[in-house]
Amino acid sequence: MSLSMAALRKKIDAGEIDTVLVVFPDHLGRLIGKRVTGSFFLKETAPGGMDACDYLLTVDVEMNPLPGFEMTSWDKGYGDFHAVVDPGTARLIPWLDSTALVMSDLEFEGRGPVRPAPRNILKAQIAAVNKAGLFPMMASELEFYLFLEEHDEIARRNF
Length: 159
Fold this sequence. Notes:
By secondary structure, the protein is of the alpha+beta class. Helix content is 25%, strand content 24%. Strands 1, 2, 3, 4, 5, 6 and 7 form a seven-stranded mixed sheet that branches. Strand 1 and strand 2 form a beta hairpin. The chain is globular. The model has no long low-confidence stretch (mean pLDDT 89).
């Protein structure tokens, strides 16, 4: 269920929402981010965003940093980028009690958008299509991984 920021504020103030997930999609489509208290979200995160480590866009499924990225690496070091809340994405999370979710856009502090961030790639593509006089229509593609073995068995085999 979508929420306006005013409605989210009311739910937080009323104690109906105590946690806000502030997230962004990584290059694998997973939502990555932080859990913040509702009061902290209203006071700090909504107006000012939050920092997150830039390695989060350069890891494999098991969260191991991958080599070969221009943006960040073991050689160049790992820094932060800034996640700016997109207020139009606020929504209740029905599978987590008293929890809302808000998407964010990634920026390098003082250097503009993180161009390889999936939301920024999508925005650039939409702008290019619009400039060509077209209006994109799309649908989501869901991707997931299925394993025949239990997680413990897969971990034991270092998969």
